[in-house]
Amino acid sequence: MLKSVRPQLRSIQDISYQVWILQDQILIEVPRKHHMTPVTIALISCQHVETLVKDRGNPIYLRLNELKLCLMCAKVREQPELQLKMSDIMDLYDEPKPVKLFLFYHSQSGRSSTFESVAFPGWFIAVSSEGGCSVILTQELGKADTTDFGLTMLS
């Protein structure tokens, strides 16, 4: 009997209870309010981990569930940048090799999660501690940007 593999759905927020929303095709973080709907994140583990670094976290693909936009890292000018790209997360999952630009090492400590780029080690998904800014990549852990997030299971 074949097991059906499906992405897990999560909501995401930082330690200040700010959530991610999509505004003009840009992923930003804002304070949670009653009249807004945060994005739902779909995540699925990479099935081909043999070529990836061990003990960095669980390699996963991330997608904004409602819009089929996957998070990816690309080099822009001299440093990596977080981008959204129209893609089917299950197509990435089914690839015979890991698609590193779309992969993140998900590390969890208690209720806190971090997401490190597989393609650009040492670069983490982050948000400004001020809020209202784009979701970015940073190397500055524990400094001006927040890299710790809480995930809540939706289904």
TrEMBL record:
<dbReference type="InterPro" id="IPR000975">
    <property type="entry name" value="IL-1_fam"/>
</dbReference>
<dbReference type="InterPro" id="IPR008996">
    <property type="entry name" value="IL1/FGF"/>
</dbReference>
<dbReference type="GO" id="GO:0005615">
    <property type="term" value="C:extracellular space"/>
</dbReference>
<dbReference type="GO" id="GO:0010628">
    <property type="term" value="P:positive regulation of gene expression"/>
</dbReference>
<dbReference type="Pfam" id="PF00340">
    <property type="entry name" value="IL1"/>
</dbReference>
<dbReference type="GO" id="GO:0005149">
    <property type="term" value="F:interleukin-1 receptor binding"/>
</dbReference>
<keyword id="KW-0964">Secreted</keyword>
<dbReference type="GO" id="GO:0019221">
    <property type="term" value="P:cytokine-mediated signaling pathway"/>
</dbReference>
<protein>
    <recommendedName>
        <fullName>Interleukin-1</fullName>
    </recommendedName>
</protein>
<dbReference type="GO" id="GO:0005125">
    <property type="term" value="F:cytokine activity"/>
</dbReference>
<dbReference type="GO" id="GO:0002437">
    <property type="term" value="P:inflammatory response to antigenic stimulus"/>
</dbReference>
<dbReference type="InterPro" id="IPR003297">
    <property type="entry name" value="IL-1RA/IL-36"/>
</dbReference>
<dbReference type="GO" id="GO:0071222">
    <property type="term" value="P:cellular response to lipopolysaccharide"/>
</dbReference>
<comment type="similarity">
    <text>Belongs to the IL-1 family.</text>
</comment>
